[in-house]
């Protein structure tokens, strides 16, 4: 069996039990009271008494009752127990150490588990480090300090990760704020006065949700964004102010037009007044919109005057249509007679007959308006056919045109005779090239001659 520094065999059995207690407390699998019970039970099994231990590798109790702890810097007093049992004194200060060890274990769990931020972790470490460094306890205080110091690396990693994450989020925020400023500047130069205002509010809400950057960058981007918002708001107000002025002017114009329409509503001068109403409508459309309520009221007045006039005109026309119904019957009879002239076989006779029908047509008078278009169209068709036949008759009997056609035929016949004589001479001389050229010329003129004779034959004798 190995012996400790003081030659006490209790040391060799005490250490593994102490380690077991630490394992129990580190895993938080039993409370401290159960761990102490576990220790006392094993000491009794070894026929040892915890309270008889007055010295171990971490400390001792002096003869005067002073309790000392051993550290790397040497031995230092942690308390006195002048009139008590030295073993009880040692046990008391060892239990204090156990509490510190549990405190360090809990700190490790919280830091390594990520339950504490870097700043809170550093503050907790400083507190625990101070408690251990000045602890009035007996145990491996240096070991506890090393465990606390070992957490510095973990905290440093967490701090670096937090710094990197903060920088990443800051850069993301910078990019988003630059985009917000750019979008706002585009809106500021646009003319989307309705949706643009909503979009500006959305951009502002996004800006507020983003973290701040460094003061210089954040202020510069905010000036861009705020300036764009100000520019857009100023231009928007100016637009609606100008629009309001235009609508006021439009209201004045439409008021005048409504009054003019009301003055014309009772007129019975149907044709000219209808034209005036058309002009008023064009002016109304050109005036542009005004304030909605005023525009609706003015339109009711303007439209009412129109309806009054055109309603009266339609009633008057309906009465006239009744009177014109008999005229329609006469013209339909004349039209039936005229349509018998087509197709035209004798242009001169057809012309004379159509002239008589046209005179009767004019004398028949007006017809109902809904029949005018059809009747006039059918009559024009007959008139066109008669005129076309007359023109064709004149063209075929025109002496000047006939003389020109006859002269063309004679000229081509003479030209062909000359070419045939030239071809005969060339063949006699054995000049094939000239003979061929003459033949080609003859063929071309014969084709022209056929067309000229056809044109001449069209003239009447």
Short description:
This protein is mainly α and 461 residues long. Helix content is 77%, strand content 4%.
Task: Describe the structure using short key phrases.
461 residues; mainly alpha; 5 domains; 77% helix; 4% strand
Report on the architecture of this protein:
There is one protein chain. With 461 residues, the protein is mainly alpha-helical. The protein folds into five domains: 154 residues, no CATH class; 78 residues; 75 residues, no CATH class; 73 residues, no CATH class; 59 residues. The protein is built from 13 helices and four strands. A four-stranded antiparallel sheet has the order 1-2-3-4, with helices on one face. Helix 10 runs antiparallel to helix 11. The protein is elongated and about 165 Å long. The protein starts with 9 loop residues before the first helix and ends with a helix. The N terminus is likely disordered.
Global geometry: elongated
DSSP helix count? 13
Write down the overall mean pLDDT.
Answer: 80
Number of strands: 4
Radius of gyration: 61 Å
Counting structural domains, the number is: 5
H/E series, N to C?
HHEEEEHHHHHHHHHHH
Q: What is the strand and helix layout of this fold?
A:
Layout: H1 10-26, H2 32-45, E1 55-56, E2 59-61, E3 66-71, E4 74-80, H3 86-112, H4 118-133, H5 141-188, H6 195-209, H7 215-264, H8 270-287, H9 292-339, H10 347-364, H11 369-396, H12 399-429, H13 432-457
Antiparallel strand pairs: 1-2, 2-3, 3-4
Helix pairs in contact: 1-2, 3-4, 3-5, 4-5, 5-6, 5-7, 7-8, 7-9, 9-10, 9-11, 10-11, 12-13
